[in-house]
Backbone:
């Protein structure tokens, strides 16, 4: 799945229980964190015409961040940075693993190639998650999930008074919620 979908799914999970803004952000970012290993695309693109290009995306995406080792790091950091430590860390671990599950379900490349998830890395190379029914990254299923998560985010923003925008700008968040409530009426308290 794409990072936007992972973000929206994780934000939905972060809103499954009462958490403060900071803890919701931590849970949401934990669900996107596995794709940090995708940042290798930048040097790979910049060096593609060099004599010795850097193949960091091709080699390390779905490896460095998509495993139990990185899950432990993200969960531990979530615990340390949060106010409701155990609840936030548990949800962060859940969104991290939900990211991995979503990638196993729907991240097949256009050439039909799958990125197996080396779950036990860096401790072992023995177990790699794959699924023969994996749908394409641009498959209708991913678009449907993204659409459903957008509807959920809009509904939660209208009903609860905050949206995913709270992570970047409280002012933009308030304006968005106000626009939703002006359009659809005030939420029942």
Residues:
């Amino acid at each position: 799945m794409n990072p936007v979908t992972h973000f929206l799914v994780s934000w939905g999970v972060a809103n499954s229980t009462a958490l403060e803004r900071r803890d919701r952000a931590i849970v949401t970012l934990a669900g996107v964190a596995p794709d940090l290993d995708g940042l290798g695309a930048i040097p790979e693109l910049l060096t593609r015409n060099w004599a010795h290009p850097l193949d960091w995306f091709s080699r390390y995406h779905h490896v460095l961040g998509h495993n139990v080792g990185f899950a432990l790091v993200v969960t531990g950091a979530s615990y340390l940075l949060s106010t409701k430590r155990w609840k936030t860390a548990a949800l962060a671990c859940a969104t991290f693993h939900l990211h991995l599950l979503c990638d196993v379900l729907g991240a097949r490349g256009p050439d039909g190639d799958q990125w197996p998830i080396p779950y036990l890395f860096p401790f072992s190379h023995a177990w790699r998650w794959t699924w023969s029914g994996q749908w394409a990254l641009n498959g209708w299923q991913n678009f449907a999930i993204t659409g459903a998560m957008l509807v959920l985010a809009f509904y939660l923003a209208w009903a609860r008074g905050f949206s995913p925008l709270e992570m970047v700008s409280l002012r933009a968040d308030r304006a968005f919620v106000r626009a939703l409530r002006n359009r659809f009426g005030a939420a029942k308290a």
In short: The radius of gyration is 18 Å. The helical segments are 3-14, 21-32, 41-46, 56-60, 68-81, 85-106, 140-160, 170-184.
